Amino acid sequence: MSEARSRGTSRTAAAQPDVPASEPERRKPERRTMLVGCLLVFTAQMATTVYLPSLPAVQHDLGVSRSFAALSVSLFVIGAAAPVVLWGRAADRYGRRASVLAALVLFVASSALLALNTSAWGLLVLRSVQGIGAGGAAIIARIFVRDLGGGDALARRLSVLSIAFVTALGGGQFLGGLIGTYAHWQAGFVVLAMVGTVGALGAATLPLHPGQGRAEQTGMVRIYLRILTVPAFLKPTVAGGLGFATIVLLQEVAPFVFQHHFDLSVDAYGNVGLLFGLAYFAGAVMVNRLVASAGSSRLMRIGALIMTGSGLLLIVLWLLPGVPLTAALVVFTALYCAVTFGQAALFPSSMAVAVSAVKDHGAYAVALCGFLAQSIAGVVATFAVLLHTNLVWAGVAAALSALAYALVRRDASNPTGNR
Question: Which residue ranges does the record annotate as region Disordered (predicted)?
Answer without folding.
Answer: 1-29
